[in-house]
């Protein structure tokens, strides 16, 4: 996956997120570039969700998918994340326009794709860090199977998703089918994506992407 660089002024390191999206049915191809200040540590590598995870974790049954409604907020209680969600489109190069650089606590939803709670896989992206500290999805790789992700929608409903897997996928072996394909046909699913692996200062990119897969298991008002 290639990278984009955004100049942020003299003496300021480049940072941001760029996602190349290829729409082929329900498949999406993603890419992300995030730069980091020398004083900020990069997230750990590996499948963090697999570490210490019971092999027989029992997951709840899938809930019936909802109709279409736009997301307003995403909450991940296990990580202490409470973030507004903004719809993002594509930039002139065909990449998802990420949340503004000066709003690291905001999550982006690909507005041209699936709405969270509807059938298919909705795509959320977020910064992992900024030049001053951690950002909205900094701890994403530490999520465990069974964790809850709640998305407040503009129809007054809260779609509750249950995490079923967390992957750290190397950029040089990135597989769009594995990352973004629906796990089970007919379900409402959610993907949370950010940078992962280690930070390569020469190329100013991370070596991997963290992809959290979740599916709809409940609805509240």
Give an overview in words.
With 221 residues, this protein is mainly beta. It has a single domain, classed as Beta Barrel (Sortase, Chain: A), CATH 2.40.260.10. Helices cover 2% and strands 34% of the residues. The protein is built from 1 helix and 10 strands. The strands form 2 sheets. Strands 2-3-5-6-9-10-8-7 form an 8-stranded mixed β-barrel. It has a two-stranded antiparallel sheet with strand order 1-4. The radius of gyration is 16 Å and the shape is globular. The termini are far apart. The model is unreliable at 1-53 (pLDDT under 50). It comes from Streptomyces glomeratus. InterPro entries: Sortase, Sortase_dom-sf, Sortase_F. The chain crosses the membrane at residues 12-30. This is Class F sortase. Pfam families: Sortase.
Write the layout of secondary structure elements.
Blueprint: E1 19-20, E2 71-76, E3 81-88, E4 95-96, E5 107-110, E6 120-125, E7 148-153, E8 158-170, H1 176-180, E9 188-200, E10 205-220
Parallel strand pairs: 3-5, 6-9
Antiparallel strand pairs: 1-4, 2-3, 2-7, 5-6, 7-8, 8-10, 9-10
């Amino acid at each position: 996956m290639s990278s984009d660089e955004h100049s942020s002024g003299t003496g300021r390191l480049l940072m941001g997120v760029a996602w190349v999206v290829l729409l082929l049915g329900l498949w999406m191809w993603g890419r992300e570039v995030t730069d980091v200040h020398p004083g900020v540590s990069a997230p750990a590598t590996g499948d963090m969700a697999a570490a210490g995870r019971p092999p027989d974790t029992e997951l709840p049954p899938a809930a019936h998918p909802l109709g279409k409604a736009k997301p307003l907020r995403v909450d991940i209680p296990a990580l202490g994340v409470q973030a507004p969600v903004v719809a993002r489109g594509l930039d002139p190069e065909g990449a998802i326009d990420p949340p503004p650089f000066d709003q690291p606590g905001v999550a982006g939803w690909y507005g041209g794709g699936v709405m969270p709670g509807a059938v298919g896989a909705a795509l959320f992206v977020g910064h992992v860090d900024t030049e001053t500290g951690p950002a909205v999805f900094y701890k994403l790789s530490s999520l465990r199977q069974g964790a809850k992700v709640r998305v407040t929608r503009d129809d007054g409903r809260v779609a509750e998703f249950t995490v079923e897997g967390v992957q750290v996928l190397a950029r040089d072996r990135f597989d769009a089918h594995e990352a973004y394909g629906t796990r089970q046909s007919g379900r409402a699913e959610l993907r949370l994506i950010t940078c992962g692996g280690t930070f390569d200062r020469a190329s100013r990119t991370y070596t991997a992407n963290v992809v959290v897969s979740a599916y709809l298991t409940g609805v509240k008002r």
